[in-house]
Amino acid sequence: MPATIPPDAPQPSPDDRVHKDMISAVALEHDAELMIRVREGDSASFALLLERHRGPVIHFIYRMVLNQAIAEELAQEVFLRVYRSRATYEPTAKFTTWLFRIATHLALNWIRDGRNEKRQDSLDDDTQEGVSRQVADQQPTIEQAMIRRVRLQEIRQAIEVLPAKQRAAVIMHKYEEMEYCQIAKVLNCSESALKSLLFRAYETLRSRLAHMA
Amino acid sequence: MECPIQTKENSEILLDYCTRNLSAEATAVFELHMEICGECRALAEAQRSVWNALDSWDAMPVPADFDKKLYARIEQHENSSWWIRLWHRSLPLPFSFGPAMPIATACVTLCIAAALYLPGYSPGTAPKVNLQPPQTRIESSDIDQLERTLDDIEMLKQLGPPPAARS
Known about the structure:
By secondary structure, chain A is mainly α.
C-alpha cells in the first residue's frame, strides 16, 4: 500500500527530487547506463553487460529447453540481438526485463516449434557433473549417486510437463529470484495473472515432487 | 487473516512464506493462521518440499568459449551486407516471423486460387476454345447424327424384318 503524505509535510524542492531520481536511477539502472554507453560505441560496456548477465541467461534458457548446446546457441542469439538493437535501445524498462523478454521469447519459440523433440540432453551430463562435484566434497556411494540421478530425473520431468509459460514463470521466480512485477512484464501479463499462473504451476509441481521431502 | 487457499489473491503469501520473502510481521500472522488451518499447513509443507527439491537442480556451467563464439558472431554480423544489418535493425524486438509466415502463405494461396477459379476471370494462358463459328458447329453435329441414323437403319435392314411382319 502506498504511504500517504500528510498535507502539512514539507514538499521537496524540484532540485531535490531530480537529484533523488538521478541517484535511484543510477543505482537501479546501472545496466541501462551501460547499454546507453554501448549505443554510443563503448564496447567495454558491452563486455561488462555480458559478464554480468551471461550466466543467468544461459541458466534460464537451459532450464527452459533442457539442452546444453541449444541453450548456448539461444543465449548467444540473445546477446547478439542486444548488440544489434543497441542503436534503437531506449531505457523504458529495466534492462533485465528487456533481456529476459528476448530470452523468454527465443526459448518459447524454440519450444513452440517442436524443435525439442528427442533433442534433450540425457541425464548423464547433469548426473556426472553432480557426481563429480560430490566426489570431491563427500565421496558419495553408488547408491547416493543413483538416488540423486532419480531425483534429478523426476525434477526435470516435473518441469517439462509444465506448459511453457508456466515453466518460464517458475524458473524466473525460483532460480532468477525476479519480482512478480518484473516476471509479469517479461511474460506480458498482469501481476494477478502471473500469480495465478505461478500458483497453478506450483500446484502441479507439488503433486509431482512433494514426496521429495 | 483470510485463508490463502480460499482467496487466490492471497496465494502469494504462501509462495513468499516458503521462499522466506515474507516480512516478519506477515510471517507471524501466517504462522498463527497455520495453527488453526491444517490445509494451509499441509500446503506450506508440500511447497517447501518442492522448493528444496528444485534447489538440487544445478544448471549447466557457462561454456568457456561462450564469449569467443559470441564475438565471432558479432563480427560476422558487422561484416554482413548493409541491407542485412538494416533488416535486422528494423525488426522490433522481440519479434519473429513464426506465426506470420504460414498465415501469409495461406493468404497468398487463397488469393491465387480465387483468381484462377472465380467466374469472369480470363487468365493469360486461356484454355483452347473452338474458334469455328456456332453455325458450323451445329451443322457438323447434324451431319454426325444423320450418319449414325443411316448406319442404324442399315443395320436393321441386315437383321431382317421384325417378327410380327414375318408372321
